[in-house]
Amino acid sequence: MYPGLRDLLLKASRKNLESLYSSGVLKPEIYNKLSLLLSLSRDFDSFLKYILEEERGKGERAVVAFSGGVDSTASALISRRIFHVVGVTIYSPDIMEEGDKRRISHLVKTLGITHRFIEVDLEDIKLATLEGRYHPCGRCHKRIEESVMRYA
Fold this sequence. Notes:
Rossmann fold; 12% strand; alpha/beta; 2 domains
């Protein structure tokens, strides 16, 4: 990792956390726990101790965007030490095949993670992209993020 990048990422995470809290998206008790976790993330041993001993099974609900990849799987497994995790996966035939959906379903069942697929219509973005009107990434990401936040 580049020197200073970790601090930059932590600062960005802190800013996003503050924004979510000030806009009323996060309850104070969730904000306080996430804020503490951000602070502990500078010292990995303290972070692990907190997760394994202090907050195990406390039970507030947390929605984790779950693609079935390494990052989202690790996030869900770590988060479930503190929260009741609900993994959510955005499904649209424009971005996911049925085989992917089956693999994700099998993975969450194996891991014991509560999970939901959220169907999202991306047809308008696909058509506009095929017409050459714009690149899809920003619009697609925004639609997916909004869908996850509405579910949460």
